[in-house]
Write a structure and sequence with these properties.
By secondary structure, the chain is of the alpha+beta class. Helix content is about 45%, strand content about 10%. The chain has a five-stranded antiparallel beta sheet, with no helix packed on it. A hairpin with a 5-residue loop joins β6 (about 200) and β7 (about 205-210). The chain starts with about 35 loop residues before the first helix and ends with a helix.
Length: about 550
């Protein structure tokens, strides 16, 4: 709603800046914005269709989504149990034993696609990838918790069924008719408001989700039926629905596509790329047009091996070695549109930089084109990884941890996991559920420099060995120590070589006998080698 000019404040504060109606630069900028439901829900159907089409047909859009998938999830976020042993009153050894048993038991469910996926298509790690891609393209992803019959080899009833965002919608009987754009309705039984399929109570708390049995406008689909699924179980409080999304405004209950802000530049970039590609293809053709006063049908075919197309009304072709016979009086005129063909790369990179800035992916990573210096590339990757880690944490909070809680509740109830107090005391419940979800590491541009930095961080107490291992290669330090111990035992069991033993004895005689001093000297030598390599590369 616009205020009349007679009562609108002018020449004060923002009235002389971004809110001015007199300055020529913003005088025609009639920006309209409504509630989150009007600005988002009413337009989600269109944004989903366009985002999916760009993902299927625009390489830059596909790169943005797949780059997130590869770095946020990779081959899957793996459970690392981190129980609060002090609160639970158990020793370090007992805690490690419990955590390993729980991780092994969870992987029994998560690693088998028939045990965790209601459709039997993906294991839990594949479901994470699917949920992330659906979240980025559609704005959110909905998962329904189901219970299947247990078997001897599948001891858990828990199943997760991921749904397309379009199947969560406001029912027709709620007052929206058949429209996919006007999405707000009312539950006639309890008076709750339904925002694009998400039912909320009078306090704004999510109460239920409305699921349709068919995809909108699907060919061959049967009659649509609606199912109301409560958001949480009445007696246990565990979720019935997993909703993966990130919000950008208060009172928002449905997500916005990751590509929403860059749909227009991506579409234009795709059109420009296709035009340049077609122009290059056409330019490579060698086509001849023969003008003649004779009847074209009486023209003999050439004997040069080139293809000659008999004249047909209004049909001429261009192609490699193509010959077209024209009608008497016809002529060929080619348009000469001016386009920046010589600056194609620069133009694409400029648009990609803007798109990448909006999507929090540096241009180098978006285009997979690394031509910058070490410092610039590292700064770009570190900036991108801030966004990747943020989305990983969101995915863990919205998908992994709720599913882990439901699974743990069933495991404890069935007696497969021993956790006294888990089902009764909320503090103990939370202590057992503490967890990290480890995914792919950031990677290394210069292993020498980055490993040296991690060694110094561990020595000075700025980092733990486990944290450094995760950052360097995404591994697990405890497992590495155990594996190295086994490997060293195997090496010590080998038959010694007399010459090697002689050389070893000579080295020991020339070196300090104090093991700690020897280790210190070894680290100093390693640090010296690393620093020498850094100096050599910087010169």
């Amino acid at each position: 709603m616009f205020l009349p000019a007679s009562i609108r404040a002018e020449n004060k504060g923002y009235g002389e800046a971004g809110a001015s109606w007199q300055k020529r630069a913003v005088k025609g900028f009639n920006a309209m914005s409504g509630s989150a439901h009007e600005d988002i829900d009413f337009h989600n159907y269109t944004m989903r269709q366009r985002s999916r089409m760009l993902y299927m047909a625009a390489p830059i859009a596909a790169s943005a989504v797949k780059t997130n998938r590869t770095n946020v999830v990779g081959v899957g976020l793996r459970l690392k149990s981190r129980i609060d042993r002090e609160l639970l009153g158990i020793s370090t050894e007992q805690a490690e034993k419990w955590q390993k048993k729980t991780e092994r038991e969870f992987n029994l469910w998560a690693g088998n696609k028939r045990s965790c996926d209601a459709t039997g298509m993906n294991n839990f790690y594949g479901l994470q990838q699917l949920a992330l891609i659906s979240w980025l393209l559609s704005g959110d992803c909905i998962g329904i918790i189901k219970q299947y019959k247990i078997t001897k080899m599948q001891p858990y009833a828990l199943r997760l069924h991921l749904l397309e965002a379009d199947r969560v919608a406001t029912p027709c009987q709620a007052g929206v008719g058949a429209s996919v754009y006007y999405t707000t309705g009312k539950n006639q039984e309890n008076g709750n408001t339904i925002y694009d399929g998400v039912e909320v109570d009078k306090n704004g708390m999510t109460a239920a989700y409305h699921i349709r049995s068919t995809y909108p406008f699907e060919f061959g689909a049967g009659q649509t039926e609606w199912t109301r699924v409560p958001a949480y179980q009445e007696h246990t409080g565990l979720p019935n629905v997993i909703h993966v999304m990130d919000t950008e405004r208060p009172d928002q209950y449905r997500g916005v596509s990751y590509l929403a802000q860059v749909i227009e530049p991506l579409l234009q970039l795709r059109r420009y790329t296709e035009s340049e590609l077609m122009a290059a293809v056409i330019e490579s053709f060698f086509t001849a047009f023969i003008k003649t006063e004779k009847d074209p049908d009486q023209m003999p075919y050439n004997e040069t091996g080139l293809e000659t197309v008999p004249s047909e009304p209004s049909e001429y072709r261009m192609g490699p070695g193509q010959i077209n016979v024209m009608e008497p009086g016809e002529d060929v005129v080619f348009a000469d549109p001016k386009h920046p063909a010589g600056s194609f790369d620069k133009f694409v990179e400029a648009i990609s930089a803007q798109v990448g800035a909006a999507l929090e992916i540096p241009e180098d990573l978006l285009l997979k084109k690394f031509n910058s210096s070490y410092s610039a590339s590292r700064a770009a990757l570190m900036e991108a990884w801030k966004a990747f880690k943020m989305r990983r944490e969101w995915l863990s909070d919205d998908l992994c941890r709720p599913v882990y809680e439901i699974w743990m509740s069933e495991a404890v109830a069935r007696g497969r996991i021993y956790a006294p107090g888990f089902l009764d005391n909320p503090i103990i419940h939370a202590a057992y559920l503490r967890s990290e979800w480890l995914g792919p590491s950031q990677g290394q541009l210069d292993p020498m420099k980055e490993i040296a930095a991690e060694i110094l961080a561990c020595e000075e107490g700025f980092s733990t060995h486990e944290q450094s291992t995760i950052r360097l290669n995404g591994g697990q330090w405890d497992s590495n120590v155990e594996q190295l111990k086994r490997e060293n035992e195997k090496l010590e069991g080998n038959v010694p070589d007399p010459h090697q033993e002689k050389g070893k004895a000579e080295r020991q005689a020339a070196s300090p006998h104090d093991p700690q001093e020897a280790e210190k000297n070894g680290r100093m030598a390693l640090r010296g080698l690393i620093l020498a390599e850094q100096i050599k590369r910087s010169i």
